């Protein structure tokens, strides 16, 4: 191999490495857990038979993983860590229900969470362990897509502090924020469609930097709503 060919190949490999570092990694992101950190995703049309799943890892025992609601009326889904256990609190119009699964989930390893709806029955699965409850009432549709909130991960936007009436569960604004890694957030866009991985809604944020986990660190400053 000539010296010129060697240098050309070396520069080409360096260029590929630089491109690989510059491209966003879609498998996950890291939230620092500060008072301004959260990630925002498109609305979840949970309907009456929707499903949602994600994976997380953290060393913190408490923190809000995910929240979405019907725009401030009744329906909501809140997923959070409470002393190392995963708790799903939700309302489909007939009163709040709570499901709790797992323990010591703040061990720094990946854990898979799945929420499954089957009309009045809602199930929470964590690493293959499942709990289910049946909701009361006659109508189990999750809000309306036109008025439902976006899906928030890790915390809530600060503008909600002045608009608590837009929250079906106002206390969510006071939950500790999640500090750790999230990946593979998957849910359906419409009832009956195939679930797919969701893409983050980018608004005002600092440019991502490499984290120790090999993903990117996202720090959302605020959201223009």
From TrEMBL:
> Keyword Transmembrane helix on this protein?
yes
Q: List the CDD domains.
A: LamG
Q: Which InterPro entries match?
A: ConA-like_dom_sf (IPR013320), Laminin_G (IPR001791), Neurexin-related_CASP (IPR050372)
Alphabetic keyword roster: Membrane, Transmembrane, Transmembrane helix
Question: Matching Gene3D superfamilies, A to Z?
Answer: 2.60.120.200
- Organism equals Timema podura
* Protein name per Swiss-Prot or TrEMBL: Laminin G domain-containing protein
Q: Where is the signal peptide?
A: none
Q: Which residues cross the membrane?
A: 12-31
The Laminin G domain sits at: 28-215
